[in-house]
Amino acid sequence: MRSLLVIALTISILSTFMPGVQIAATFDPERLRVLDRRGTSILVRGNAPLNRQGKFDPEMIIEYIQRNIATESNNCTFDRLHVISLISASQSDESYVLGQEMKYVQDEIAKHKLYHRPIAGSWLSPPPFPNLDFLNHMIWNFWRPDDGAWELAKELKDLLLESQYTILYIHCMRGIDRSGLVAGTYIARWKGNASEIEIHQMNHDVGKREINWPARNALRWVLWKASS
Fold first, then answer.
1. Using CA of residue 35, residue 114, residue 119, residue 96, what is the dihedral sign?
2. Taking Cα atoms as reference points, which of 140, 101, 123, 134 lies closest to residue 225?
3. Is residue 50 within 8 Å of residue 100, measured between CB atoms?
4. 3-state DSSP call for residue 145?
5. What is the pLDDT of residue 15?
6. Could you read off the pLDDT of 115-126 as tens digits, one per residue?
7. Angle formed by the axes of helices 177-190 and 196-207, to 10°?
8. What pTM value is reported for the model?
9. pLDDT tens digits, residue range 61-96?
10. C-alpha–C-alpha distance, residues 138 and 144, integer Å
11. What is the β-pairing status of strands 41-46 and 33-38?
């Protein structure tokens, strides 16, 4: 009995401090947010793009965005989906989603594209003291504690500018933590009028909670970089 209580307590503690542990999920429109529009293309964030049968379904995503989002600003007709998948290939549930995406893209290689950009976050938050800013620069240059989010934001901007009639769809599993990190980084790098409070509010609106602490730490580094 005591061992069962210990196991239950351990699971509870892990679930509290590691909210990024994921389970496979179907596409949830409530997690969808528009990050940017350029010409005839659009950049959005969301969760795992699986239908109710557990299959990767680009047409479902395109149809939903076309019907519910695209008409808000223009009458463009999207005909392709470029997926930026932030999930890991080493976790069973995430590797299943990634496998579904890879299989579909191989079959439909001329139309849809997949960019696998796994990201997790950072274990280290920036030092809180202004007089240690030199230390922040050293850590950034030698370690890159944003986990690649800063460069990914540049890649996303380039893809958006180069594409036509395309939906760029960023996702992790639940569309909260890693997607929140990358979305926040994109906004911090390319939309200078957005405040840190606005970025945190956007992420909270999506997940109804703060993004997990590795993503939050990496985003803090990004916000420091954007302001330095």
1. positive
2. 140
3. yes
4. coil
5. 42
6. 999 999 999 988
7. 150
8. 0.86
9. 999 999 988 655 556 889 999 999 999 999 889 999
10. 9
11. antiparallel
